[in-house]
Amino acid sequence: MNVIHRKGWEIPENQATPEAVAMNRRALLAGAGAAGLLLASGPARANDPAPTDALHPYPRNPAYTIERELTPEAITSRYNNFYEFGTSKNIWQAAQALKTRPWTIKVEGLVEKPFEIGIDDLIAAMPREERLYRFRCVEAWSMTVPWSGFPMKAFLDRAKPLSSAKYVRMDTFVDARMAPGQAQNIFYPWPYQEAITVAEAANDLAFLVTGIYGKPLPKQFGAPLRLALPWKYGFKSVKSINRIVFTDTRPKSFWETLQSAEYGFWANVNPEVAHPRWSQATEEVLGENRRIPTQLFNGYGEQVAGLYKGLEKERLWA
Ligand SMILES: Nc1nc2c(c(=O)[nH]1)N[C@H]1C(S)=C(S)[C@@H](COP(=O)(O)O)O[C@H]1N2
Ligand SMILES: [Mo]
Which of 67, 213, 246, 261 could cross-link with 165 by S-S, CB 3.0 to 4.6 Å? Predict the structure, then answer.
């Protein structure tokens, strides 16, 4: 590959879109389900041991329960998007190469005082809880999972952004030797980055995740720290965060850089605004072999719609 900086439209479609992985994921589920492999293959491999492992399970916060069935771990832990580990159907296995300890989070930009903190020190200092959240990928599949973590608001209180900070950007690692997807796709704008407004980050629903199913987060879910923003499409929920930067200018995220016609900054879930290549009106429920209607803000409008008052001219939906 000679051309290092390609434009989004120059990237073959099957590489430039999460849909390519969706297809692989579906093929995997169909094949594995038929062969009974999902149940036979056992739990994900152990994480790197960490002093905060014993803090699990976190107490469930009853304010965040849900009317849907939880999606089984055997399904969600095999059906992952994590481009650092490729686009094939065995991302979850490739991701076991991720080294999650030691792991440091750098907090930078428009804050009172920039700092670094070890992930276990951060986890120990934060108010930990479990929440049941829906999750809606832009590829039109969904799941319902019990995330363990802490409110992003609690992290903001610790990071102390200046009033001039309007956005918070979160970056993933770059290590092409550990993560084969980064070696294969050298023209992608690594690191994977996502950003939200500080106001969104302060919303009760914005959740930083350190575990799932009452246990430390398996690597393929984006250990040791990932985001969960249940009212936005899944690509906003960045995995394996190691840098958090506060800024006054809107960052351009990984997918926006690759394919801005399809993936924008706000990316709030809206069944009435189709993706350029598919409808967003319904979603496939992972593991249930059925489609259900997608809800505005993925059903979380009551908590988040107010964030977007006065922003109606923005492209709020994808
Ligand atoms: N660092 C990083 N974060 C990421 C991604 C990725 O490729 N790399 N994929 C995103 C997409 S498209 C989705 S749908 C979710 C998938 O989360 P899951 O594998 O835990 O279901 O992670 C998001 N966060
Ligand atoms: Mo996604």
Answer: 246
Please provide the average confidence, as pLDDT, over all residues in the chain: 89
Our count of domains for the chain comes to 1
Number of C-beta neighbours around residue 97 at 10 A: 14
Closest CA to 76 of 292, 286, 291, 289: 286
Tokens 């036979």 found at: 40
227 sits in which H/E element:
strand 226-228
315 assigned to some structural domain: no
Hey, whose CA ends up nearest to atom 1 of ligand 1? 239
204-224: pLDDT as tens digits: 999 999 999 999 999 999 999
**255 CA: nearest ligand 1 atom:** 12
Q: What is the pLDDT of residue 45?
A: 56
Task: Supply the range of the domain harboring residue 283.
Answer: 13-308
Residue 314 lies in a domain: no
Does the beta carbon of 235 lie inside 6 Å of ligand 1? yes
Q: Choose between 299 and 6: higher pLDDT.
A: 299
82 lines ligand 1 (CB under 6 A): yes
pLDDT at 18 exceeding the cut of 80: no
Ligand 1 neighbourhood includes 213 CB (under 6 angstroms): no
CA distances from 263 to 20, 95, 235, 315 (A): 15, 24, 9, 10
In-domain check, residue 316: no
* The pLDDT of residue 11 is above 60: no
Q: Whose CA is nearest to atom 16 of ligand 1?
A: 81
The CATH code of the domain that includes 40 is 3.90.420.10
Question: Rounded to the nearest whole angstrom, what is the distance from the C-alpha of residue 137 to the centroid of ligand 2?
Answer: 4
Q: How many CA atoms lie within 13 A of 220 on its CB side?
A: 23
